[in-house]
């Protein structure tokens, strides 16, 4: 079982993660981790902080001579912006900075204040910030590198911004990172960018939908034996942990609710050269909590972020008087970044289920177990 634990505040010294449960012998490309961190910062509509930070990973433990040791891996990403916040984020007593007392609607400000009894909302927003997802993407990059050994690749793309829905596909997925919104429909992407510009002029924000796809996943990961071990349940849990994600859809998901069963189920066929197969993938690669060999398709529905340049009505937690909410530096649209974070989280769940099925000590043993399993699947048809 993979366990990972993150730490760090948005404007603190850095964001770190410790990953336990990785097998020995995974070849690690540090620059590939840095590329994932860079991808997280991309996307039309991101805020000024993306121009300050140049996220690079530091590896403190668990890797030697380019391979994992089987011991915990510790990663750290330094916050370059910390130099501008040293007084506000002072660890010892005597730090300065105005207390924040005006909670933002839609953020964790008020709920965190009520839960912990702070007199300064900054104590909430620093950890509740999506900046903490830096550690998830760094960890996800390692999971991706592990899965690549078994032919599994994961990517994401933007389906929708506001009410503007991508339709036709005229981009190659290998070119996605070179597009402003990582959208496969170049014409709709232009309209999406115009909507983001409109939101920015209004001091507003805009949400949307992104799709995360895992290709090359074998049948048999996850189980229906217990509710918390079902693969789709595990995917849902981690995806809902991503800030701004309010809906998680697997396969045709939401659309299935308005159709007859005969329109939804993926019919099964067989050819000797191909084995069992389906002509559709409305299940999104998972049936009864178990991967079925088709692509795993997950859609993430993202609300607009709650930090606005034109703030909404709120109440001061100290005076209880009506005020406008706190203004903080923020993005206008984060949907493409959510896709990259979603890739990391999907990689985590699949890697965890993979190690659960094929062992977790060494790459050599896992590869042997995986090869034996594929032979059994071939014999079964």
From TrEMBL:
<dbReference type="GO" id="GO:0009073">
    <property type="term" value="P:aromatic amino acid family biosynthetic process"/>
</dbReference>
<feature type="binding site">
    <location>
        <position position="329"/>
    </location>
    <ligand>
        <name>FMN</name>
    </ligand>
</feature>
<keyword id="KW-0057">Aromatic amino acid biosynthesis</keyword>
<feature type="binding site">
    <location>
        <begin position="303"/>
        <end position="307"/>
    </location>
    <ligand>
        <name>FMN</name>
    </ligand>
</feature>
<dbReference type="InterPro" id="IPR000453">
    <property type="entry name" value="Chorismate_synth"/>
</dbReference>
<comment type="pathway">
    <text>Metabolic intermediate biosynthesis; chorismate biosynthesis; chorismate from D-erythrose 4-phosphate and phosphoenolpyruvate: step 7/7.</text>
</comment>
<keyword id="KW-0274">FAD</keyword>
<feature type="binding site">
    <location>
        <begin position="127"/>
        <end position="129"/>
    </location>
    <ligand>
        <name>FMN</name>
    </ligand>
</feature>
<dbReference type="GO" id="GO:0009423">
    <property type="term" value="P:chorismate biosynthetic process"/>
</dbReference>
<protein>
    <recommendedName>
        <fullName>Chorismate synthase</fullName>
        <ecNumber>4.2.3.5</ecNumber>
    </recommendedName>
</protein>
<keyword id="KW-0285">Flavoprotein</keyword>
<feature type="binding site">
    <location>
        <position position="288"/>
    </location>
    <ligand>
        <name>FMN</name>
    </ligand>
</feature>
<dbReference type="GO" id="GO:0010181">
    <property type="term" value="F:FMN binding"/>
</dbReference>
<comment type="subunit">
    <text>Homotetramer.</text>
</comment>
<keyword id="KW-0521">NADP</keyword>
<dbReference type="InterPro" id="IPR035904">
    <property type="entry name" value="Chorismate_synth_AroC_sf"/>
</dbReference>
<comment type="function">
    <text>This reaction introduces a second double bond into the aromatic ring system.</text>
</comment>
<keyword id="KW-0456">Lyase</keyword>
<keyword id="KW-0028">Amino-acid biosynthesis</keyword>
<feature type="binding site">
    <location>
        <position position="40"/>
    </location>
    <ligand>
        <name>NADP(+)</name>
    </ligand>
</feature>
<keyword id="KW-0288">FMN</keyword>
<feature type="binding site">
    <location>
        <position position="46"/>
    </location>
    <ligand>
        <name>NADP(+)</name>
    </ligand>
</feature>
<dbReference type="InterPro" id="IPR020541">
    <property type="entry name" value="Chorismate_synthase_CS"/>
</dbReference>
<comment type="similarity">
    <text>Belongs to the chorismate synthase family.</text>
</comment>
<dbReference type="GO" id="GO:0005829">
    <property type="term" value="C:cytosol"/>
</dbReference>
<dbReference type="Pfam" id="PF01264">
    <property type="entry name" value="Chorismate_synt"/>
</dbReference>
<dbReference type="GO" id="GO:0004107">
    <property type="term" value="F:chorismate synthase activity"/>
</dbReference>
<dbReference type="GO" id="GO:0008652">
    <property type="term" value="P:amino acid biosynthetic process"/>
</dbReference>
